[in-house]
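Input sequence (555 aa), recorded before submission:
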Amino acid sequence: MKISKILTVAVVALGATVALSGCIRETFPKEGAITKDQLMGGQMDIVAENLLKGIPSGILSPTPYFWEHTDFGYPSIPVYTDQAAKLVVTSGWMLNGSPAYNRFMHAPWGKGYGSNGWMSTHFWYSYYPNIKSCNDVIALTEGNDNLASYSAIARVYRANMYLDLARLFEAMPVYAEDLGNSSAYDDLCFKVQGLTVPIVSENTAEADAKANPRVSREEMFTFIFDDLKFAEEAFATYTPVNATDPSLAVIYGLYARAYMWLGGFEDGLNGELPEGAAAYAKAAEYAQKAIAAHNGSITTEAEWCDIINGFNTKVSSWMWTLYQSTDTIASNLHQFPAHMCPEADYGYCQFTSPGISSAAYDRLSDTDFRKNLIKGPEKEYADFKPYTQLDEKTFNGFAPYTFFKFRPGQGSRTDSMVGGSIAIPMMRIEEMYFIEMEALLLSGDVAGADAKLYAFMAHRDSAYKMETNNHLDEILFQKGIEFWGEGLIMYDMKRLNIGVDCTKSVNYDPQARFKSTGRLPWWTACVPLSETQVNLAIPVEKNNPDPTDIYIAIQ
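Predicted structure, token format:
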């Protein structure tokens, strides 16, 4: 490797920032430091290691725009998608507060997903600058077998980010025949159906980034699988060193996620890649491989219900973890606990009461221990006292259906730096069990899927019994409760064209009440204007149509 290449790539780590296009913006690591002697001496392993540290810290940092209190990096995306899918419901408005205290309001209201909107910009710039960081590591280590593990780690991160981007931006019609506004929207969707986002790799030059079209589903997933294949081969002899390093189990988990997405299509646009039942079978296969490779236990009731460490501290079920620290916390409000931990006094939760819908609460079995963490309308403080640090007066200030799943760091309720310093799960072993059971069901093995569901639910509800003949609906319902706030369910609903019905619950605020036949149109964002103005390969006719007001809230 020539020293000139080290200089070209590692100048990023010395603090240079160059705004080219949204896709190729330079970044620098928040952790680690590269000395001049290491750089000039060609110590590529040290240079690569320090560049690598910048990826997980960069993922946890705000976007370059830093507009809103929801701008705190990767952990904000799951909250947005879960609110868009109507899984996370903020009920603070029921106590006569403004629904706008929920700073994620754009997602449940279906606003800001157009090319000039906040949502599209936030999604785009939460990922692409960090993809650039991955590309820097990959470019630096190219052709050096001794540094293959560094390249592999960067490629796993990159594959995960492109998978999210593909699912957020792939154009998919809504087929909402009962809505007059949807016809024109669907016509425009069909013109860009199957298009994802531009690929920016380690070989993409500035000129290329300015003429970089959206790629097809087949091309994007081929690219993702190539990254995963490289990493799988490299990890055959590699053991993760840092807590944020992905493992072989994570690679298998990403394969499983990707094949699940491909399974949702039988439109011929997967090309040489499997689709439908064949893809679901592959997803089940890789989910099983991930479970075997990780060899970690399912999160226990004690871990779920820990009032100090619940879902803020890594446990054995977590396959891939990020660590938010004081280095990446921008403020008391630019952090996950401020929006999702009711016990964090320094955030918005005292005004928003984040929880689940009343219909979901009523459906959840009383013998399911997860229900103990939800403030039902029938529960008194004495019922809830074992599950919270709050005193009775503070507890009574939260609306019904608030979910006490996530706790601030070290249980700190008033210190935003301590409370905001938490571990964040990027992948848990439980997801693999749900992928396996759904994939078995959708590839034709109903009995096998039911057996897997009952085996899993034995860890959550000792008296569990399926109360519906809709097996898919039950799997997705239980998955939604399990991964509330972790951002998985919207991708499933979008893939399966499953709609929402807010008319069965009492706690959706008036602007968030929708009823749809199939997927909501704003589960597909537009490429932001800030990108299309620079990248001329994405003209208006190649962008996704604006989903604003395709559905009107039911007042």
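Checked by second reader. The longest strand covers residues 318-323.
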